[in-house]
Amino acid sequence: MTVITYASKSAFKNLCLNFVLHNYHMRMGRESSKQARYPIRLILRLKRDRLSQLPDTLICHILSHLPIKETVTTSVLSTRWKNLWLKVPSLELIFSIFPNFNAFKSFGDSFFDSNRVSSINNLKLYFDEHDASYLTSWINAFVTRNIQRLYVRRVRGNYFHELPLSLYVCDTLVSLKLFHLTLVNPEFVSLPCLKIMHLNYVWFPNDATFERLVASCPVLEDLKIDVLWNDGRVYRVQSRSLKRLRLLRSSSMVFDSVPGVVIDAPLLCYLRISDHVSETYIVSNLKSNAKLDIHLDFGSEDCGETSVSSRRSHIRSFLPAISKVMDLTISENIFKVIHHYSNLAPLPQFDNMSRLHVTLRVSELKWLPNFLECCPNLKSLIVAFNGDFEKMGSEEMNQISFLLGMTRIVDMTIFMYTSKVIRHYSLLEPLPQFGYMFGYMSHMHVTLSMSLIKWLPIFLESCPKLKSLVLVFLGCEKINQLSFSSVNPKCLLSSLEFVELDAQIMGFDEELLNLAKYFLENSSILQKITVHRNIHGSTYEGLISKFRRRSRLCQVILI
């Protein structure tokens, strides 16, 4: 038995597609040529190919990867191919590829009304601002043909067409993605196989419509709701199977605020909410392994102390629900809310949290240690700065001293913005010699400009247990000479095993090579160093091979 790997299947599919197109154009060219003297049957017999000997199901699978126009044109190849395209399991129907609306509608009517279309597994449908009443008969047709994956999008127009009731009762539907449409209020919903549902700019007549829709999907795992404007709805998500939930609602064109969001999904692994409208958030049965990404305002853009005090009860009920998670990402506004709330009442303990990603301004760094006190088991901290650091005064710049309190951090990511903050800090006073400040640090990922590289030994000296270091260089600031202290940081002698260097800019070949040389010559137990080559990377291999290696087991990887 011959086993076809994924790569060979892909190559075989591409070969078949090219063969279909080549065979079609060759035959059509011969038929139209004035020099063709042989009858068409003889040509077809002489040009009989191996592709035509494949079963219909496999040919239809190949045709499903062609654009609809080319799929239809294969019907002229032979009598066998005349209706073969009607059996393709996947179809992408886009109104813009047709000369006009009538041609688009006529094609769809013919296709979906055809008794020869036995089943449609995957369908992507794009339509414009014209009257879309034809969608009812189309949707009724493919629902009866065992549709599994459906993507329907209104590209233009303000009118939200109502989808028929037949869509609510489909035993085969696995994935449903809708854009700019209206869902009617059904009396009965049955979607027993639906696992993925994305509702983008979809209008619901009332709160119960959405709640019933979600509750009637017993195996739903992935749900996304993107609200075009503030529709005044309360979104209640109650599901025993849901694993991923994303809710985006940012505009307040219709109402000032709405009551809120209610989530009860005990199997939830990922929750992302970006909502600047809802006043309250009730999250129940959230497990510790869930990953949270929250951008909330609790119904007001004002995140000051007075505003937070007025929303105190809403915040009090929300914080304990998220305090159990291990991975948390919070926006600048929610960080402000948490800080001001901490002045009114004690914060819950985030005992399970091992990773925190927070966005804030440098002036707000002084608040971070108080929050970190509630995270005794934190291992990874990512701080993203917001604002214009160049206009910050010395008082704000001195706030980076909060780093002195983070001795338990194991994994740290420093972005380009942070490295620039450190640079401006150094203009006010020399960088401190932190000693073994990061005594537990094992992994560090730093994005910085090449001009900051001279401070690298100071950082490394602060990380005596560092095992993995990733340095990514951005910007165009050059340095005259790259030199380091003769004293090697402790981690180079006892712990550093993996180094990755990546200059995502041109013209820093010499600096990158000198860095590689520095680590190769001074790291005792280095196992692997990875260097990302740029346009001049072809010379790296010869140069790096000449560098002395303190660790004989070190492997050099050039990418």
UniProtKB/TrEMBL annotation:
It holds the Pfam family LRR_At5g56370. Transmembrane segments: none annotated. Residues 48-84 form the F-box domain. It comes from the Eukaryota. CDD domains: F-box_AtFBL13-like (cd22160). SMART domains: FBD, FBOX. This is Leucine-rich repeat 2. It comes from Arabidopsis suecica (Swedish thale-cress).
